[in-house]
């Protein structure tokens, strides 16, 4: 746990994957993080390499989304004959939007320019195969770590990344790699590691008011379980059953009466056909084709995401999904899928407000 009341100010490093997952901190977890940092006077480091990667990924993600819209419009036109013309954003519009978001966050950001010394030291790490390059060359990650070292004399640093290359034996449960810890010790400093914003917020969470988690889980499930998720299950050859379990964590944000929620919902699924296995190797998990398919009469579909919850009218808002996993009865992952962001809102005891869902996108 990071002590936030004494000593040097705290500074968080978010890798590019976290920035992307949390929609440049426009997500519910992003709102909770910004509120927390405003309370403790914390900052967010933005190394030059991370800023450039985040902006480019915004362009690529936007380009793919625009392409999907154009393809869908072509289908609509073929069915109805015509549609209204829609002006879609250009690559430069997505880049400018990312730049504008960073400007909005300027007061809390600590920008770290990449110096020639950073480049040389990062290259040395790559050549010597030292962390975060123990299993493969990670020049960008090495530059990120150089930025961490650069700020250690002035800040208590928290590194938030889902990249296991920073971890000992590439396992998060073992913490920061030994070589990186030794570097910190030489500077009389410590770097705290978390794999998500929720993990960091959990380590310093404030008390939240009592909530009816069962009802909230039902609301979230009502948004998720629509024909799209059912079709998703069917497209993979299994059928979707009932909600089995749920886990919901609440975090305070700046908006009065609104909380940020991180949730995991587990559903029964039936007749799952497994054609691939995930094998642990020296370079990380790899997919391997099975000689013969394995059939699972029952399995569990685990859906994880985040949203806002308005306590004043019991409404779930701006729900987004992060992961969908299918697990065998022994807990082994048998199918892995990423999903697009889902938006919508629904209210306890009231008529459902229309929402829209982007279809899941396979990552495997």
Chart the SSEs and their pairings.
Layout: E1 10-14, H1 16-21, H2 28-40, E2 43-47, H3 48-80, H4 91-104, E3 109-112, H5 116-128, H6 139-151, E4 156-160, H7 178-186, E5 191-194, H8 197-203, H9 213-224, H10 227-235, E6 239-252, E7 258-281, E8 284-310, E9 315-327, E10 333-339, E11 342-343, E12 345-347, E13 356-357, E14 360-361
Parallel strand pairs: 1-2, 1-4, 2-3, 4-5
Antiparallel strand pairs: 6-7, 7-8, 8-9, 9-10, 9-12, 10-14, 11-13
Helix pairs in contact: 3-4, 5-6
What can be said about this structure in brief?
With 364 residues, the chain is of the alpha/beta class. It has helices at 16-21, 28-40, 48-80, 91-104, 116-128, 139-151, 178-186, 197-203, 213-224, 227-235, and strands at 10-14, 43-47, 109-112, 156-160, 191-194, 239-252, 258-281, 284-310, 315-327, 333-339, 342-343, 345-347, 356-357, 360-361.
Protein model, in words:
The chain has 364 residues and is α/β, with parallel strands linked by helices. It has 2 domains: 10-203, Rossmann fold (3-Layer(aba) Sandwich); 213-361. Helices cover 35% and strands 32% of the residues. It has helices at residues 16-21, 28-40, 48-80, 91-104, 116-128, 139-151, 178-186, 197-203, 213-224, 227-235; strands spanning 10-14, 43-47, 109-112, 156-160, 191-194, 239-252, 258-281, 284-310, 315-327, 333-339, 342-343, 345-347, 356-357, 360-361. Strands 6, 7, 8, 9, 10, 12 and 14 form a 7-stranded antiparallel sheet that branches. A 5-stranded parallel sheet has the order 3-2-1-4-5. It has a two-stranded antiparallel ribbon with strand order 11-13. The longest helix is centred in the N-terminal third of the chain and has 33 residues, at 48-80. It is globular. The model is unreliable at 1-6 and 336-364 (pLDDT under 50).
């Amino acid at each position: 746990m990071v002590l936030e009341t004494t000593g040097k100010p705290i500074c968080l490093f978010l890798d590019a994957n976290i920035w992307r997952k949390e929609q440049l901190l426009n997500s519910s977890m992003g709102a909770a993080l910004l509120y927390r940092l405003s309370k403790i006077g914390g900052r967010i480091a933005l190394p030059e390499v991370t800023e450039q990667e985040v902006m480019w990924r915004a362009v690529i993600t936007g380009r793919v989304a625009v392409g999907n819209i154009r393809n869908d419009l072509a289908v609509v036109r073929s069915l109805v004959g015509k549609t209204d013309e829609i002006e879609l954003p250009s690559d430069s519009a997505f880049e400018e939007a990312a730049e504008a978001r960073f400007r909005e966050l300027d007061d809390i950001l600590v920008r770290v320019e990449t110096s020639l010394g950073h480049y040389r030291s990062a290259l040395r790490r790559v050549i010597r195969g030292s962390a975060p390059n123990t299993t493969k060359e990670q020049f960008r990650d090495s530059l990120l770590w150089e930025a961490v070292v650069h700020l250690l004399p002035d800040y208590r640093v928290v590194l938030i990344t889902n990249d296991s290359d920073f971890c000992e034996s590439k396992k998060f449960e073992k913490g920061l790699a030994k070589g990186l810890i030794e570097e910190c010790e030489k500077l009389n400093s410590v770097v705290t590691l978390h794999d998500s914003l929720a993990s960091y917020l959990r380590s310093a969470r404030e008390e939240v008011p009592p909530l009816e988690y069962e009802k909230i889980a039902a609301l979230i499930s009502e948004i998720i379980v629509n024909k799209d998720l059912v079709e998703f299950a069917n497209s993979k050859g299994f059928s979707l059953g009932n909600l089995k379990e749920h886990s919901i964590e609440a975090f305070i944000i700046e908006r009065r009466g609104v909380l940020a929620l991180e949730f995991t919902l587990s559903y029964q699924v039936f007749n799952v056909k497994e054609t691939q296995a995930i094998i642990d190797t020296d370079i990380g998990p790899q997919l391997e084709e099975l000689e013969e398919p394995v059939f699972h009469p029952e399995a569990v579909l685990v859906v994880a995401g985040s949203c806002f919850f308005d306590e004043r009218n019991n409404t779930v808002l701006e729900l987004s999904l992060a992961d969908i996993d299918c697990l065998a009865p022994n807990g082994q992952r048998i199918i892995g899928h990423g999903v697009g962001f889902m938006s919508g809102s629904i209210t306890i005891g009231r008529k459902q407000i229309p929402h829209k869902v982007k279809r899941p996108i396979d990552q495997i």
